[in-house]
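Q: Give me the 3D complex with SAJ.
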Amino acid sequence: MSFNTICIIGLGYIGLPTAAMFASKEKQVIGVDINQSTVDTINAGKIHIVEPELDALVCEAVDKGFLKAVTATEPADAFVIAVPTPFLPIDKEESTPLPDLSYIEAAAKEIARVLKKGDLVILESTSPVGTTEKLSKWLAAVRPDLSFPHECGAASDIRVAYCPERVLPGHVIRELVENDRIIGGMTESCSKYAIELYNTFVTGDCVVTNVRTAEMSKLTENASRDVGIAFANELSIICDKLEIDVWELIGLANRHPRVNILQPGPGVGGHCIAVDPWFIFSSAPSESKLILTARQVNDFKPQWVIEKIKSAVIECLSRNPTKTISDITVSCFGLAFKPDIDDLRESPALVIAKELINLNFGKLLAVEPNIARLPLNLEQDLKLVSVDVAIDCSDICVLLVDHYEFKLINRARLDNVIMVDTKGIWI
Ligand code: SAJ
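A: Here is the predicted complex, encoded as structure tokens.
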């Protein structure tokens, strides 16, 4: 088995680092993306996302001729699908949210055009159980001249496997190499080929299971984290009511050798933890009671934080009876979905900042050291300022993300402001 040419479909946070890793091992890598400007950026040896070490890897790969980006899928020995699997936008409370598999289906149709006997197709995108089998069927529908594992098992011309990505944004390059990899081939031989492919750069173990278990394992990892964070978030609300410092409490409980409680915060963001539990729920709604409750607890947390900010406003007005709400300045410390990254997508901090706009404060400031500009739709109502300006000008400081820079703030500088600290770093 040798994979000389590898085609990666989707050049986002997972696809591009994966393409760069294969290229760093001197494989010929074709990266496919529907976005022409992404393709142009990569072909210029640059990157369109922020991820440590990735820029150098991509630059070298393009420079040496091992990586090129294109908009249409080209023939290869192995295909890796790393496209998004979002949710169709429907009201989560009214009905079961449905995963949108249209990007995978579109990728399948593209790959099918160029498939040849002996090729390997791997799905990495987070997907509901049963998706890889659907992928095999989508491929087969376009190529009746080839046989596929859902119908021919081990004798099939094409090998199909599900191998989820499990890397943490900010540590992608190291984790791509070192993390154990789950390999869910549709047959034993599909798994064997998939292991061979990943052994190109993975030093962690490649652990084989069946395809449905592989799909479920990815969802389980993220749902488990969501449930853990929900427990911490619920504790924070209980402790607030009982006047107990939740961070001290968790620190104490975690000294027990078999307790490891996660950290509360303003809610759960990103494109994985807040989304993937719904993939389990959508497959087994009546059985996913705890998973559903965890989602609801975490989704409620931004609203709870807003109520705390409203209480801080009342406190501020009672301390300064001559002031009105339009005299108050509020600062949001952090807009990203987690510390020390620039990614604002699906961020609970952003949800809270947007909600604060409607409260019509005199001034609403934001400190986000990881971005140079606010998103366009916020520029009118929110002003991006430095840590110093925010502290000097604000009546209320709301800590939403525990960025490194905010941990360095001398606590005494905050003596004259009212604090709402959702991460427990200023307390
Ligand atoms: N969060 C808390 N409290 C915590 C930990 C996290 O409130 O104790 C919040 C974060 O602030 C953030 C959200 O949860 O808003 C998610 O952050 P995260 O660091 O837990 O996870 P992600 O979304 O960056 O990456 C996760 C990882 N999954 C697990 O740790 C099980 C990563 O390994 C996956 O590859 C990634 O999802 C993915 O792509 O699925």
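A quick observation: The chain is about 40% helix and 15% strand.
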